[in-house]
């Protein structure tokens, strides 16, 4: 495995960042989880745009122009000779001193890219669906450093996931301060009731997922069913016909049990099933080519 760090490639065991990197010391940085399907990087422009917006929000100057970051991503996939890949792109504040002052990170941001083979859930979960709980941990508020930034401050999500694991579940729902459903520890959430599809709005305090956006487009274009963004309490999930989660790693996956309540028929429902199919068809037939780009030169 070859890992990109600041313009150079390293073997896995040699791929290291400094203990003085503010990403390590303070979680001061941002990331993207990106997938490549069939030799093409899926929705790369969306991920790069969110990266740029996250960087801007935390006053982080990206070490390269977006176009160069795109090239580095494609090069990393190519060097690792992958057709299907999970990519982790991380930008930290860079090496500083032990203080909080970001001006001390003089060398500028650290950028690294890992290209790996990852499938988050075994295929049987796409048939059977996931078990989900509501976490005791609340989503960070809109008045705090915002849930909209895909930052390295992932503690709340990690602790929520640990609660799920302890309860024998795969995912955890985070409610926001007003008690509405926001999202899961690493996925956005939708539910289906009487033929209508709902998802929490950005004002619920969510990370606006690329997969969420894709699924909203697929619902409209392929199902002729426009997703309604509205706030709702978890009580509405218990009575839903279907609940499903979306994320780069998970793609589209049903949640069939929530807080011990069986959702709908307790299996992956028809709307979720058709969306999984549309999503996979689309992911496998679109995206930024990794290998043709070389030929074109
Ligand atoms: C990344 C992430 C998601 C899903 O976003 P995608 O772009 O679809 O992968 C949802 N919630 C959180 C907290 C995330 O970090």
Describe this structure in words.
With 297 residues, this protein is of the alpha+beta class. The protein folds into 2 domains: 2-116, 2-Layer Sandwich (D-amino Acid Aminotransferase, Chain A, domain 1); 124-283, D-amino Acid Aminotransferase, Chain A, domain 2 (Alpha-Beta Barrel). 30% of the residues lie in helices and 26% in strands. It is built from 9 helices and 16 strands. The chain has helices spanning 22-26, 44-57, 66-79, 123-128, 155-166, 210-223, 234-238, 270-283, 292-296, and strands at residues 2-5, 8-11, 29-37, 40-41, 85-92, 110-116, 130-134, 171-175, 181-184, 188-193, 196-199, 228-229, 242-247, 251-258, 261-262, 288-289. Strands 7, 8, 9, 10, 11, 12, 13, 14 and 15 form a 9-stranded mixed sheet that branches. A 7-stranded antiparallel sheet has the order 2-1-6-5-3-4-16. The longest helix is centred in the first third of the chain and has 14 residues, at 44-57. The chain starts with a strand and ends with a helix. The structure holds pyridoxal-5'-phosphate. The site of pyridoxal-5'-phosphate has 15 residues, from helix 6 and strand 13.
